[in-house]
Amino acid sequence: SDIIAGVTGRVLAIECKSGKDKRYITKKQIEELEEFSRRFGAESWVGVRFDREWWYFLSLDDLDESSTGNNFVVDIDLAKKKGLSFEELIKN
């Protein structure tokens, strides 16, 4: 994972992706994030940022599989619909 943060008694492990279009995350990256989180008692999250947008944080359950099934994909619509802002993430 790219970021490990402790927030009010919680530990967050966040895989971060940024760019201007869809963000792809390999299944291997998600498996490694889940394994790391399990070992350290952390919550698994994916953070995505698109050009001229804020960061959005999504639970692994909110990720969509790509059409090939080899990756997960997040676009701006999914991020805005299901993602949390940083403030919302640390409040939960």
Topology summary:
Elements: E1 3-7, E2 10-19, E3 23-26, H1 27-40, E4 43-50, E5 55-59, E6 64-65, E7 71-74, H2 76-82, H3 86-91
Parallel strand pairs: 2-4
Antiparallel strand pairs: 1-2, 3-7, 4-5, 6-7
Structure report:
The chain is an alpha+beta fold. 29% of the residues lie in helices and 41% in strands. It is built from three helices and seven strands, in the order βββαββββαα. The chain has helices spanning 27-40, 76-82, 86-91; strands at residues 3-7, 10-19, 23-26, 43-50, 55-59, 64-65, 71-74. The strands form two sheets. A four-stranded mixed sheet has the order 1-2-4-5. Strand 1 and strand 2 (10-19) form a beta hairpin. The longest helix has 14 residues, at 27-40. The protein is globular and about 35 Å long. The model has no long low-confidence stretch (mean pLDDT 91).
Distance between the termini: 20 Å
Tally of separate helices: 3
Report the order of strands and helices.
EEEHEEEEHH
Largest sheet: 4 strands, mixed
| Uncertain segments | none
- Name the helicity range: 25-40%
